[in-house]
Automatic annotation (TrEMBL):
<protein>
    <recommendedName>
        <fullName>Integrase catalytic domain-containing protein</fullName>
    </recommendedName>
</protein>
<dbReference type="InterPro" id="IPR012337">
    <property type="entry name" value="RNaseH-like_sf"/>
</dbReference>
<dbReference type="InterPro" id="IPR050951">
    <property type="entry name" value="Retrovirus_Pol_polyprotein"/>
</dbReference>
<dbReference type="GO" id="GO:0003676">
    <property type="term" value="F:nucleic acid binding"/>
</dbReference>
<dbReference type="GO" id="GO:0015074">
    <property type="term" value="P:DNA integration"/>
</dbReference>
<dbReference type="InterPro" id="IPR036397">
    <property type="entry name" value="RNaseH_sf"/>
</dbReference>
<feature type="domain" description="Integrase catalytic">
    <location>
        <begin position="1"/>
        <end position="64"/>
    </location>
</feature>
<dbReference type="InterPro" id="IPR001584">
    <property type="entry name" value="Integrase_cat-core"/>
</dbReference>
Amino acid sequence: HHPQTNGKVERVNQSLVTRLKCKVNSTSTKVPWTKLLESVTNEYNLTPHSITKYPPAYLLLGTLPYDSPIGQNSYYEPVNEARNLALQRTMDYHNKNKIRYDARFVHKKFNPGDLVVYEEFHYPNTRKLSPPFSDPYEIITYLYLSL
């Protein structure tokens, strides 16, 4: 399991670490973070998300731990409706971000014979004095990709 390969997992981990830091540093007696992890995770799962407006626990389980088993949940819509609303809000947020990204993106068409370079920052032996870009490569043919 590599959380760094999954942006959503990495973002949740970042939120949990931030909350853990606050809890660990707010107590006068130092409590190990392992003792606080369960409560911080529960707090995260029960806090409404800024985009969906629902707690993750409610969307996943369909109920909150503190709901009365007899009474109807008076805080949120029925879970199926809440999931649909959360999906719609997430898609709206995604579309707004896409519009913002597309406004800044400049599409460049490359033709055979053009020289191109690429950034070497993922190269394993990159050093401070290494060139930041590869040697130029000539484009031989143009492949049409339909996305």
